[in-house]
Amino acid sequence: MLDILIAFFLLSGGFFALIAAIGVLRLPDVLMRMHASTKAGILGSSLILVGGAIYLAEPAITVRVIAIILFLMLTSPIGAHMIGRASVKDLETKKGRGEAGG
Amino acid sequence: MTTSVFLDWSVSISFVMVMLSLAVAFIRLAKGPSLADRVVALDMMTVSIIAVCGVAAVATGVNALLDVALVLALVGFLATVALARYAERAEARRKEQSDA
Description:
The complex is a heterodimer.
Chain A: H1 2-26, H2 30-56, H3 59-101
Helix pairs in contact in A: 1-2, 2-3
Chain B: H1 2-31, H2 35-60, H3 64-99
């Protein structure tokens, strides 16, 4: 029974990681790509780490996995905010140049 | 018995999925037209490698792989912040040069 739960966590985590990477490849804009990598990517790796914590079943490992997930969920918005700020300035200058040229 | 075989198969399948996501993110890293695209792709690859560490911990039963994942999460955040900072500064520098 526990094996099936671990397998569910691993498979759904791998699925979300793959979806996130396909989103990073296929979406048309930097901001949309960031949306795919931050939300779906963090969800996928968090699910896989939860599966690993259930499989290893040690308190120290569980605490470590909770720390990793909390850290990922705290820091990914900060990183995404900084990349977004940089890229919005870039997009604005590109748009201004396009309007000036056209 | 059958559930452990199922777990082995799902470990293999999720290894394939996570490695595919790493490869697809690398395509964006190679293609990415702007610097911000590349930073996003590197961030995605770091998260994928953390997932690889999780799957490898289940596959081998080595606890130390989760320490690797923790350190990778810390270093990946620093790398993302540093590269985003650099992209912003590079953009500002270019603007100053074009204004002057």
